[in-house]
Amino acid sequence: PVVEGCLKILKEFEVNFTVNVCSAHRTPDKAAELAKNAERDGYDVIIAAAGKAAHLPGVIAAYTVLPVIGLPIKSSTMDGLDSLLSIVQMPSGIPVATVAINGSDNAALLAIQILGGAYPYLRAKIHDHKSKMAQQVEVKDQQLQEKLRGAL
Fold first, then answer.
1. Does residue 152 share a domain with residue 107?
2. C-alpha closest to that of 112 among 3, 19, 6, 20
3. Distance (Å, rounded) from C-alpha 72 to C-alpha 26?
4. Long-range contacts: 66-69, Cβ < 8 Å, 24+?
5. What's the CATH code of the domain at 90?
6. How would you class 47 by CB atoms within 10 Å of its CB: exposed for 0-12, middle for 13-18, buried for 19 or more?
7. What is the tally of structural domains in the chain?
8. 88-136 pLDDT, tens per residue?
9. The pLDDT value given to residue 65
10. How confident is the model at residue 32 (pLDDT cuts 50, 70, 90)?
11. Same domain, 46 and 111
12. 103 lies in which domain range?
């Protein structure tokens, strides 16, 4: 369920994607193959979600030169802090961009921003998205100001 927000945003921005389930520990060969073949298969960025020990993003990053975004998933252990620390503490030379625990929306948006470097239409969509967010904040501020004026 956590990753569904990511998928929704990718669809909204009309970004093509695939979804695979693999594990750095239970299916390490599959994880390595997906990572090794990602560039050849036409991928530009990879989002890897993982919980608990959360080694999947790092394993993927070890096998590809593509940008990897680690999405730490909250598990029953340590409220996801274990996942976050596993993903963010990568050795030199194997970078993994990391978003917040259960931060699937930001994982999608970061991927789209990375893609925006090569695809100007995505960059334009990100500009529009940020403008809409700013407008929403302004509307909330106006509503609050009106409410406060009425209360005084």
1. no
2. 6
3. 18
4. 66/38, 66/39, 67/97, 67/114, 68/95, 68/96, 68/97, 69/45, 69/96, 69/97, 69/98, 69/99, 69/107, 69/110, 69/111, 69/114
5. 3.40.50.1970
6. buried
7. 2
8. 999 999 999 999 999 999 999 999 999 999 999 999 999 999 999 999 9
9. 98
10. very high
11. yes
12. 4-118
> Do 132 and 71 share a domain, yes or no?
no
Q: Hey, how many other C-beta atoms are within 10 angstroms of the C-beta on 67?
A: 19
Same structural domain, 79 and 49 = yes
Q: Mean of the pLDDT values across residues 49-54?
A: 95
Same domain, 84 and 108: yes
Tell me the Ramachandran region of residue 3: left when phi exceeds 0, alpha when psi lies from -120 to 50, beta otherwise: alpha
Question: Does residue 45 sit in the same domain as residue 111?
Answer: yes
pLDDT at 1 exceeding the cut of 90: no
- 127, 55: one domain: no
Q: Could you tell me which residues come within 8 angstroms of residue 93 by beta carbon, excluding any fewer than 6 positions away?
A: none
Exposed (0-12), middle (13-18) or buried (19+): which is 2, by Cβ within 10 Å? middle
Within 8 A by CB and 6+ apart from 39, the residues are 64, 65, 66
Give the strands of the sheet with 46-51, arranged side by side.
Answer: 46-51, 68-73, 97-98
